[in-house]
Amino acid sequence: MKIAITGKGGVGKTTFASMISRMFADEGYRVVAVDADPDANLALALGFPKDVYESIVPISEMKKLVSERTATSEGTFNKMFKLNPKVDDIPEKYCKEHNGVGLLTLGTVDTGGSGCVCPEHVLLKRLCSHLILQNKDVVVMDMEAGIEHLGRGTA
Fold first, then answer.
1. If you ran DSSP here, which 8-state letter would residue 46 be given?
2. Under a CB-based contact definition with an 8 Å cutoff, are residues 102 and 96 in contact?
3. What's the pTM value of the predicted model, to 2 decimals?
4. Hey, which residues does 32 pair with through a beta bridge?
5. What is the pLDDT of residues 64-116, one digit of tens each?
6. Greatest CA separation for the chain
7. What is the DSSP letter of 144?
8. pLDDT tens sequence across 5-55
9. Count of C-beta atoms within a 10 Å radius of residue 94
10. Residue 48's closest CA among 22, 77, 84?
11. Would you say 70 and 82 are in contact if contact means Cβ atoms under 8 Å apart?
12. Are strands 96-98 and 2-5 parallel, antiparallel or unpaired?
C-alpha cells in the first residue's frame, strides 16, 4: 500500500500519519514513512529518540546526492534535470528506523532566494514510484499542506 495523507494545515496529517504507520508496524507490516512536509515533525510524532531524530538528514540537504542523481548543480534555477534518477539504494542507506517504522524526510528551502526544491521532489517522486511493495509493505507519506504535491506528482 502507498498512502499519501494530504489536507489543510493544522488538521492532523502528521498525527494521523504517525498513528497509521505505528498501527501497520504493530501488525507486522514493513513500513516506510516519508515526511514530505517542510515543517517536518513526523519523527517526533513517531516517538523517535532525540539522538536518532537529530541525526536524520533531509533529502533537500543531501546536495551532493541530489546533484549526482538528478544531474543538477547547486543553486541553479530554471535548468533541466533528470526525471528518472537512481533511487534504489536510498531506503537502505538513508532510512532511520524506530519501532518498526523506517523514516525518510524531504526537508525544505532554508533561505529565500536559494532556489526551488524541484530536483529533490523529483528524487522523492521517483523513490515512491520505485518502491515495489510486496505483501505486508506500506509507504505512508505525510504531505505538506496545500496542493503543491499534487502539481509535482509526489502524491
1. T
2. yes
3. 0.78
4. 102, 139
5. 887 888 877 765 555 666 677 777 778 788 889 999 999 988 876 555 555 56
6. 45
7. P
8. 888 888 999 999 999 999 999 999 999 999 988 888 999 999 999 998 888
9. 18
10. 22
11. yes
12. unpaired
Q: All 3 cell numbers of residue 132?
A: 515495489
Grid coordinates standing for 3? Answer: 498512502
Which amino acid, residue 56? Answer: I
Which residue is listed with cell 508496524? 25
Q: What residue ranges do the domains of the chain occupy?
A: 2-146
Which one-letter amino acid corresponds to residue 130?
H
Instruction: Name the residue among 118, 143, 100 with its Cα closest to residue 2.
Output: 143
Q: Name the CATH superfamily for 2-146.
A: P-loop containing nucleotide triphosphate hydrolases (3.40.50.300)
Residues 106 and 59: beta-carbon distance below 8 Å: yes
Number of DSSP helices (H) and strands (E) in the chain, helices first: 7, 5
